[in-house]
Amino acid sequence: MSNTPVKRLSVPNIMAKKGKEPIVSLTAYTTPVAQLMDDDVDLILVGDSLGMVIYGLDTTLAVTTEMMIAHGQAVMRGSKKACVMVDLPFGSYQESPEQAFRTASRVLQETGAAAVKLEGGEEMAETVEFLTKRNIPVCGHVGLMPQAVQMMGGFKVAGKNDAGVQKVIRDSHAIANAGAFAVVLEGVVEPVAETITQQLSIPTIGIGASPACDGQVLVCDDIFGVFQGFKPKFVKRYAQVGQTMKEAVKQYAEEVRSRAFPSMEYCFLPKKN
Ligand code: KIV
Questions:
Q1: Ligand 1 in contact with 43 (CB < 6 A)?
Q2: Best residue among 24, 25, 27 to mutate for probing ligand 1, ranked by most atoms within 8 Å of CB
Q3: Are 183 and 200 in contact, with CB atoms under 8 Å apart?
Q4: What is the pLDDT of residue 159?
Q5: Could you list the active site residues?
Q6: What single string gives the DSSP state of each residue in 201-219?
Q7: Residue 135 carries which DSSP code?
Q8: I need a surface site. Which of 2, 158, 190, 230 has the fewest CB within 10 A?
Q9: Which of 25, 48, 59, 88 to mutate to test the pocket of ligand 1 (most atoms within 8 A of CB)?
Q10: In 3-state terms, what secondary structure has residue 185?
């Protein structure tokens, strides 16, 4: 066994994957889950989706910077190899580039993560430029933007009509030109996501977008089959961990009620003389 410390993938390593083998990305929010995925993923996103999948909120809007930092720290403790980025939550960056810098620098300082992600297109380009010029790596997020749920009246796929196609193309270009190292395309009609991927010089990371994207990201609780709330069309369940947990609880409850658990095997017995 070698004692050489494992080097984490860096932001430039992720950028260098443009047009090559797809970037594998998943969300993680906790130390054990980060440990489980660290060998197999390139990029871990501590997503503000944690508000919905961990805290049971209906939207991501009530997620705070403190929540993101606590979960960012947990994920950093659980990972050694993957590049880690942390979402900036709603209200923590939209007011001004200066507010975004204060939040983003605090997130990087307190978690040790490599980058932040923020939602928004043309309207956030000035902020992305402000951050990247001050050495804060930023991943953009355009298309379906969960933090815009109230303005949109729901979680709506982007690029369904001509105006929508033009908007998502303009948004992704604005974020790339502002210096983002990558951009998440969420809920973007497939050929549009492919076109954007071909046009941009930075990696696109798709979620409900296109196999042509430079990478893919999904919410870990969705692929594990733990989150039972709802299943968007773009989610593929790779396991039924929620069902397994439910069965374990049921069996535990039966065994406690019947006194089958704890059997002597699980008890501390007096020392034999
Ligand atoms: O918050 C999140 O998990 C995300 C992904 C869905 C891309 O932004």
A1: no
A2: 27
A3: yes
A4: 81
A5: 186
A6: SSPEEEESS-TTSSEEEE-
A7: T
A8: 2
A9: 48
A10: strand
How do residues 13-64 score in pLDDT, each as one tens digit? 999 999 999 999 999 999 999 999 999 999 999 999 999 999 999 999 999 9
- The two tokens of residue 13 are 């390593």
Residue 69 is which amino acid? I
Peptide bond into 270 cis (omega under 30): no
Ligand 1 pocket check for 27: Cβ under 6 Å: yes
The CB of 119 under 6 Å from ligand 1? The reply is no
Residue-by-residue DSSP string for 146-195: GGGHHHHTS---B-SSHHHHHHHHHHHHHHHHTT-SEEEEESB-HHHHHH
Element (H, E) at 144: none
**Residue 44 CB–ligand 1 contact under 6 Å:** no
Amino acid at 118: L
Q: Are 181 and 138 in contact (CB under 8 A)?
A: yes
The CA distance from 133 to 46, in Å, is: 23
Dmax over CA atoms of the chain, in Å, equals: 84
What residue has token string 């998943």?
26
Determine which residue's CA is closest to atom 2 belonging to ligand 1.
Answer: 47
Give the whole-angstrom CA distance, residue 21 versus residue 213: 10
First to last CA, the chain: 43
72 CB within 6 A, ligand 1: no
d(C-alpha 27, C-alpha 47), whole Å: 6
Question: In this predicted structure, what is the pLDDT of residue 270?
Answer: 94
The pTM of this model reads 0.95
pLDDT, residue 1, reads 53
Which pair of structure tokens corresponds to residue 155?
């979680």
List the chain residues with pLDDT less than 70. 1-3
